[in-house]
Amino acid sequence: ASCALAIKKDSTGGLEIAFDIAAGDSAIFGPVLLPDSTVTRKRILARDAALPIGKPFSAAAIRRSISRLEQRPYVVSANAISLLTRRSSDPKLPDTILVPFDIRDRSGMGIDGAIGYSSAAGEGLTGNLELSVLNIFHVGEALAVSYRGEKGYQAASFSSGLPRPFGFPCDIALSVAMELKANDHGSVSGELDFLVPVADRLQTGLAIHGEELEIVNSPRTSIYGVDLLLRKPLVKPQRKLFYSDFALRAGSSAASKAGKTYPRFDVDIHTGGQIPASKVIAFYFCGYAQMIRPVSQQDTLSSSEKIKLGGFGSLRGYSQDQFAVSAAGWTQSELRLFFGQYGHFFIFADGGSAVFDDQTWNAKTAIGLFGYGAGIRIPVYGGILSVAYARNWHDGKTPGRIHAGITSEIASAVAAMIR
């Protein structure tokens, strides 16, 4: 395209400014040019970029391709570098624009874990460990195996995810879990998720889930349901960065036991974000609301079906999964003092309320919860180490608790894909 400026006087002595704009030669997108240094196969990255080959050239289409690439957990960064023009030998045919992408991706294994210790009677040491694998087969796959154990309780799970397998228009994630609590219950559950991107870092889809539950001195229970998913995954907290995350899960299920079927519905909402206040200070706030509600008064929830609340990554100041509730709402807030790009000290206060009764929901049945403390997050090789000292307002003279956990970059990327 070209533009010419013409300035001349009009009859009143004023200036008349005119722009003469002429359209340039038309151009279309050609094949995507990808670097040879990427771990991920080129056909996967070209599919993720989804550049409209053969369509009219536009800068907006390039920006959308970059955004789609950076939404992938196995892509660290993506940029379009100097465009190349392939001139058409036929003046009636448009030129072709080749877009070279500079992409930095990743693959490997990561370890995620958390340990909690409380000196309160009957609590002691609790912990969980998760091994995550990302993109080692070069097709963007994600795998995770986790285990949690403590006295009288064992739980294990396996999760996997694959972006748009076999040409499907959506990402697919599969998870299987087992849980065993001594003298209480045992269960096996599974879930199949279908997710599609709808905007920058925003995904939506469906989750189909089922569970077989065996409770001591009770009939076997089979639970099957479908949930709607909408989520915007969390990014890695860093200095001077404003970010937000959001997740919504809502649906219904049916529990079959003793020859009868009981309907239920559930809602799980989470939203939060970080707001920088200066070069080294930032505020973080997030809110959670979870509920599982039986429709029939004859239906009751076992402890394994209820919402687990307390501990690292939940309501700090309490032991890991200390409470099993049918509804809960709580907030997490932090004042962060950064040193370096990712490391920071923090002071936190977590508070909310929970309902334990399946049927009676009112202010009289809700129990208030509040935890507080301070800690530090330190960048370590491949991830972030977090250590915090925490108490709650029911502790009295007890020394409180220590929450410690490590989250690797690989594990965080895998979690964004399969959770």
Fill in the keyword field for this structure:
58% strand; 419 residues; 16-stranded antiparallel β-barrel; 24 strands; four-stranded mixed beta sheet; globular; mainly beta
Task: Describe the protein's architecture and organization.
There is one protein chain. With 419 residues, the chain is mainly β. The protein is 7% helix and 58% strand. The protein has 3 helices and 24 strands. A hairpin with a 2-residue loop joins strand 12 and strand 13 (202-215). The mean pLDDT is 85.
Summarize, please.
This protein has 419 residues and is mostly beta strands.
* Structural class designation: mainly beta
Distinct helical segment count: 3
What's the SSE pattern? EEEHHEEEEEEEEEEEEEEEEEEEEEH
Helix percent band: under 10%
Strand runs, count: 24
Radius of gyration equals 27 Å
Give the distance, in angstroms, between the N- and C-terminal Cα atoms: 48 Å
Q: What is the residue-averaged pLDDT? A: 85
Strand content: over 45%
How are the strands ordered across the major sheet? 7-8-9-10-11-12-13-14-15-16-17-20-21-22-23-24
Please give the largest β-sheet.
16 strands, antiparallel, barrel
